Amino acid sequence: MQPEDFERFLIFAGDHSLQGKSDVEKIKTFISWCQRSGFEEVIIRLSSEDKGGWGNNFLLDFTTHRIIISKKKFIRKFVDLGYIAGMAPFPYMLVSKQNLKLSDLKKPPIVTDPESNLKKGSSSNFVIPYSEIREIIIRKGVGTIVTNMLGSMITTNFLTINALSSIHDYMLPVRKNGTFEEIHYWLSAVVPARVVAN
Are 34 and 41 a contacting pair, CB within 8 Å? Predict the structure, then answer.
């Protein structure tokens, strides 16, 4: 989606007044509009890693249609560019407390076509349509991967996607993905499947 496309959504939203709606209602309105208009947009991106960044590391893109799981390139394991864990730029603008300015829309979008990671990528990249998801389970945990000098643990959350024919487990480091509560809140709003917090 380009800035001018998002501008079209804002015109639509103005006609259907988003004022007074909750953040979740705003995002759901945006998702419905994208689906009707033929856009697949990333709404939330989570960063998964294990073994201190040396193991299997994936980006989990929750789009308007499905989840796209793509293996991070080597350099991206250490330096995540763009947005991580949270709203993609256009949805974020909808829930931001700052007033939207058209000049903000003219900046180049951070998100590229969700298909691009699949086309470029490794055989590890795949998609899960929302229709194939039984449930998503997010668990709060304390990782024992690294301790700092004070001895406190770096917390890690855990995400399990139970699909019809497979189960996928991911570790979500808090430093890249925000709090457990935020992740659960937005996944529950975006994913049209059962999201369970344990």
Answer: yes
